[in-house]
Amino acid sequence: MKPDDAHPGTTADECAAVSHAVSALLDEDDRIEVAYDLEVSSPGFERPVQTRKDFDRFADLVMKIRTRGPLEGKTSFEGPLLGTSDDGDGYTVRVSVGGREVAIPRRQVSRARLLEIKTPKPVKPGKGPKAPRPAKTDGVAKAAGGESPEAGR
After folding, report:
1. Residue 7 domain-assigned (yes or no)
2. Phi/psi class of residue 52: alpha, beta or left (left: φ > 0; alpha: ψ in -120 to 50)?
3. What confidence category does residue 128 fall into, taking pLDDT thresholds of 50, 70 and 90?
4. Alpha-carbon span 140 to 61, nearest angstrom
5. Secondary structure (3-state) at 150
6. How far apart are CA 14 and CA 7, in angstroms?
7. pLDDT digit string (tens) for 74-97?
8. Averaged pLDDT, 38-63
9. Nearest to 106 by CA among 87, 133, 81
10. What one-character-per-residue DSSP string does 40-99 give?
11. Rounded distance between C-alpha atoms, residue 120 and residue 83, angstroms
12. Residue 135 lies in a domain
């Protein structure tokens, strides 16, 4: 499975599904005559980020970036990736560190890795946030005005 812009990583459930499907096919034909362990994995956490396209598509994910030399007195920056912007000699990688934006010239980046991969949860059609449940006091549900339903009787 190849990641797309909306789903930058492969989940453990997807790896398990591929493993079960391939294992069933291999067992069906009995092509491998010796005992084996089938392992299916993805780059997952610590995925290297190298191109400008990668930096832009992984915006909002947590990154760890190491620089070739000190920048603002540091050589390691960790936080949500904000994307890229043009500079005179190429582009700058923008990351939020401690709530402050840090712009790192790409030519200064020696290593950049994802530390967090988020796969959006699918939303079922017609489903939205649940309405709040009425508060209970002494086992009796209270109406929106704070009175119990029996109060007006």
Report:
1. yes
2. alpha
3. very low
4. 45
5. helix
6. 12
7. 999 999 999 999 988 899 999 999
8. 80
9. 87
10. -----TT-B--SHHHHHHTTTSEEEEEEEEEETTEEEEEEEEEEEEEETTEEEEEEEETT
11. 19
12. no
pLDDT of residue 20: 84
Supply the pTM of this predicted model. Answer: 0.52
- Tokens standing for 1? 């499975």
Question: Does a structural domain hold residue 147?
Answer: no
Q: Are 143 and 134 in contact (CB under 8 A)?
A: yes
Range of the domain at 2: 1-42
Calpha distance 42→49 (Å, rounded): 14
Instruction: Report how many domains make up the chain.
Output: 2
Dihedral sign from CA coordinates of 96, 101, 102, 103: positive
Query: Residue 71 sits in a domain of what CATH number?
Result: 2.30.30.520
